[in-house]
Write a structure and sequence with these properties.
By secondary structure, the chain is of the alpha/beta class. 40% of the residues lie in helices and 21% in strands. The N terminus is likely disordered.
Amino acid sequence: MDEKNKKNNDIIFGRNPVFEAVKSGRAIESVLVASGSKGGTISVIRAKAKQQGIVIKEVNPRKLDFMCGSTAHQGIAAIAAVKEYSTVEEILAYAEEKGEDPFLIILDELEDPHNLGAIIRTAECVGAHGVIISQRRSAGLTYAAGKASAGAVEYEKVARVVNIPNTIDKLKEKGVWVYAADMDGGLYTKTDLTGPVAIVIGNEGKGVSPLVRKKCDAAVSLPMAGRINSLNASVAAGVFAYEILRQRSNKSKN
């Protein structure tokens, strides 16, 4: 497979292929409709996608030409996930099966698929039971994210939810302590991160949103000694994740 096709192998285009992909219940990141494209099949696809909570975006037809590597897209394309999503319940059940306290990483509107892939890779390496992402305004399990995960996407459970604040409430009801990564929080090494725990990593530019921050039990921060006051999201997630692993390992030895 040449590099051009590698880049496009998560793209489904053409009215019938997109219709069948959506109808089958396959994990779809988004449906892209060329501006001005109308017609019976496109209307049906829009309705079906909306019913399933799939994001629908109107884009310039030239963008579709570029993404599909062809003008034969008939005004519509879908970006498919490289793997089926899990549910939050499945992630918690997996932790229970292993006899371990839940360890989750929650991503609040993280937009860069390379950051998502890197975090999935870290999550798998530290033994986190799953990653939770939001359905809208977030990177999903596209080819780029899968590639950035270096294969970890095949092993790490990823759940996609409609509402992060509601999900945090449900996790707290199940005894999971939820911490926001925030520069105004307590020092991460001085915070007890053992037991059932979830760490929330925010958007690359805005950080954790105010509502999500409010829902968390507390906030934790990293010390900053340079002129820049924040790390790349995937790097920060890695530091927090390995601190959780360190504290868990120390606790198991005592």
